[in-house]
Amino acid sequence: MPSKPKKPEVLNFQIRRSHFFALVVPLAFLLGIGVGYLVWGLNQTAAPVEASLLENTPAAANPNAVGESSGADDIASQIADLPRYDVPVSEEDPSLGAEDAPIVLIEFADFECPFCQRHAQQTHARLLAEYGDQIRFIYKDFPLSSLHPNAYSAALAGQCAHEQGKFWEYHDLLFSGRLGLGREAYDAYAEEAGLDLTAFAACLDEDRYAEAVQEDYDFALQLGVSSTPTFFVNGVAVVGAQDFALFAEIIDYELSQQ
Questions:
Q1: Is the pLDDT of residue 191 over 80?
Q2: Mean pLDDT calculated for residue range 225-240
Q3: In DSSP terms, which residues pair with 141 in a beta bridge?
Q4: pLDDT grade, residue 15 (50/70/90)?
Q5: Is residue 97 left, alpha or beta, with left meaning phi > 0 and alpha meaning psi from -120 to 50?
Q6: Relative to the CA of 139, which of 56, 104, 109, 110 has its CA 20 to 30 Å away?
Q7: Residue 39: which residues within 8 A CB-CB, separation 6 or more?
Q8: d(C-alpha 168, C-alpha 62), whole Å
């Protein structure tokens, strides 16, 4: 299991708590949506936010809230004024889409998070269908083990599938929920995804990607991420399993600026 993250000694940039309000409040209230808030700040470790809080947001209660309440000009002006965060992407990160895609959507997620599952099954699939190669999707692990006992092992399993070039197929199987999570499920999903089962088992048995998962987790904490899923769309933060309409409005704005 991942050790308790330590405060980093050196960071490439600093995010102050005041930036959080400038970042999230315009999206949450001016766009007429609800967001599961994080605490942004590098001077303290943020406590995980219960994902169930998202159930009470206006966006969850009314999936059409964004599209019904927002004007294109108003949205454009809000997005243009938002700060953008530099989230480095490495060659080892699972990615989907063209490297030169105009939209880069980075997700910090947990395979046992029901709201991550909802995003994967509904919003992610629709974004992929409607925008195709215009988006490059990047997945980063943020297993909230204090809430989800299988999240860390599932993250390791996902990375072992990634080793064999089958991350996204395995990602979809994990989020399908058909077999739950646990070693038997991981092995069954591996077989279904067409993985080399011997190599996959060896990868899991030796916790081969423990360091990679820990690095994602630690960096998320440095950013101030405390709940899943959390996204960065061309550097614009979107917190929680927001509906397709919000992502589409940000993406359409970004494409209009190309």
A1: yes
A2: 94
A3: 109
A4: very low
A5: left
A6: 56
A7: 17, 20, 46, 224, 226
A8: 29
Q: What is the enclosing helix (H) or strand (E) of 77?
A: helix 72-81
Query: Distance (Å, rounded) from C-alpha 131 to C-alpha 143?
Result: 28
Is the separation of the CB atoms in 247 and 27 below 8 Å? no
Distance CA 83, CA 22 (A): 8
Sorting pLDDT into bands at 50, 70 and 90, what band is 73? low
Please tell me the distance from the alpha carbon of residue 244 to that of residue 143, in angstroms, as a whole number. 24
Alpha carbon of residue 221 to chain centroid: 13
The Cα angle at residue 146 between residues 160 and 161, in degrees rounded to 5: 10
Which residues partner with 107 through β-bridges? 139, 231
| Band of residue 71 on the pLDDT scale cut at 50, 70, 90 | low
Beta strands 135-141; 95-96: pairing state: antiparallel
DSSP one-letter code for 63 = T
Q: Cα(31)–Cα(192) distance, rounded to whole angstroms? A: 41
17-40+51-256: CATH superfamily: Glutaredoxin (3.40.30.10)
150-to-94, 112, 121, 138, 189 alpha-carbon distances in Å? 20, 7, 19, 22, 15
Alpha-carbon distance of 70 to 88, in angstroms, equals 31
For residue 133, what is the DSSP state? G
Q: What is the tens place of the pLDDT at every residue in 99-131?
A: 999 999 999 999 999 999 999 999 999 999 999
Q: Tokens in use for 258?
A: 């190309």
